[in-house]
Amino acid sequence: MSYRYPVPAAKVPPRNSRVLLNFENKSLALFNVADQFYAIDDSCPHQGASLCGGRLEGRVIQCCAHGLRFDLASGYLLNSTALKVGSYPVECEGEQVFIVIGAEESGQ
C-alpha cells in the first residue's frame, strides 16, 4: 500500500527551483525542473549530507559534501547503479501536488 502526501500549495516549488519538506519522519527534497516534479530523500546515501541545497543541472543534483551526482528521475548515481538515493513518484491533480510513498518507505 502506498500513501499520497499532499504538498501544501505554499510549499510547491516554482519552475526551476526546489523546496525541503518533512512528512512524518522523512525529510524530502521536491524539485520542479521545467515544470516536471521530482521527489527524493534529502540525505545523500554516501554520508548523509543534504541534497536539497546541492547544485542542480537539469535533472541532476550534485551533493554539496563530496560532489556525487544523482539523477532525480531514477535516484541513481549518475552513470552507475552502485548508489541510489530514495526517489518517489510525484502526482499532480489540477493544482494539487502529491508525493507517493510506499508503506515500507514511510515506516507504516
Tell me about this structure.
- The chain has one domain: 3-layer Sandwich (Rieske Iron-sulfur Protein).
- The protein has one helix and ten strands, in the order ββββββββββα.
- It has one helix at residues 103-106, and strands at residues 2-7, 17-23, 26-33, 36-41, 55-57, 60-62, 69-71, 87-88, 90-93, 96-102.
- A four-stranded antiparallel beta sheet has the order 2-3-4-8, with no helix packed on it. A three-stranded antiparallel beta sheet has the order 1-10-9.
- The longest helix is centred in the C-terminal third of the chain and has 4 residues, at 103-106.
- It is globular, with a radius of gyration of 13 Å.
- The model has no long low-confidence stretch (mean pLDDT 93).
Task: Name some characteristics of this structure.
108 residues; mainly beta; Rieske Iron-sulfur Protein; 4-stranded antiparallel beta sheet; 3-stranded antiparallel beta sheet; 10 strands; 4% helix; 45% strand; globular
Task: State the separation between the terminal residues, measured CA to CA.
Answer: 9 Å
| Assembly context of the chains | single chain
CATH topology value: Rieske Iron-sulfur Protein
Strand content: over 45%
> How would you name the CATH homologous superfamily?
Rieske [2Fe-2S] iron-sulphur domain
Uncertain residue ranges:
none
Structural class: mainly beta
Helical region count? Answer: 1
Mean pLDDT: 93
Quick synopsis:
With 108 residues, this protein is mainly beta.
